[in-house]
């Protein structure tokens, strides 16, 4: 019975039905397309995109105005699957679910974590990053062990193919979209004064938006999303009780930076056993590098006496002191800081990629192909995002 339920939830036709419900359509006639043979990682059979789409909503009168778009793609891949145009009848839902999927992408992380650390509570931000690193690392590793493909297209319309080279189970977007708001609630409630119902509603809306967005985008089955949600909760149950110990170790232990760097490198090397290249390897190295940089930066802050944690007698903290002036300063601090982080990222990228190519004697006339080589990708990601994480804390 469980196997039948799992097969039902993994059916790509359920994803296509949700997309049609939200007004997503592929090219005319896709609803009647027959799938031709096996599908590799969510791509169309035979490697060719079918000239068809999800069709109109049954019972719809006339031809509603349609808005045509092309999927967001990854510059490192040469995938053609899912590159067909799609149409949507609701711009609101398109932008809403695009926002939801961005809550699990790099742009959100590079805004959210700095804002939390610089303007809200460094204590809270460090712990969120610890949980985020473990959730994302375990999620990426599990994908590469299970190796389930993305939902078949057709019948699914791919609104995003940025991560299409990765495997599907579990959804790491669903994992981060579950773990971050729940961890934020668990860590902040009692430390900050706010109504519990507000935190619960925020966590529910955040999690629901991210999870539904991955089905809407055609990147995950319902089973992928449910598994990601439950997996994130399991990881939270295990790591939340020890997150204080991990953070205190990062801050106070004399040899913490050496152990942190060694551990994150070992975790990365252990997990990079892919049969083919995908964005998963670079993303995992990026997450581990960022986590190591933040932990080492926190240690240096503590040693230099620059720790920004509020004293215990000032707890619980209150949001009542928020004014227009305070908010303006927070936004200005965020903008200036993020610009510095982005400049750090660009500078380290410019330095590490040619250096790695030179050391390992890899031609770098085609940067895209060079970045797909493990000898280039791992040092580039580790060093670049390690420095970004370190700069975040300084």
TrEMBL record:
CDD domains, A to Z: PAP2_SPPase1
Domain of life the protein comes from: Eukaryota
Subcellular location field: Endoplasmic reticulum membrane
Transmembrane segments: 92-112, 196-216, 223-243, 255-274, 286-304, 324-343
Catalytic activity: sphing-4-enine 1-phosphate + H2O = sphing-4-enine + phosphate; sphinganine 1-phosphate + H2O = sphinganine + phosphate
Keyword entries, A-Z: Endoplasmic reticulum, Hydrolase, Lipid metabolism, Membrane, Transmembrane, Transmembrane helix
Gene Ontology MF term list: sphingosine-1-phosphate phosphatase activity
Positions of region (Disordered): 28-82
Topology of this chain in the membrane: Multi-pass membrane protein
Family, per entry: Belongs to the type 2 lipid phosphate phosphatase family.
Protein name per its UniProtKB record: Phosphatidic acid phosphatase type 2/haloperoxidase domain-containing protein
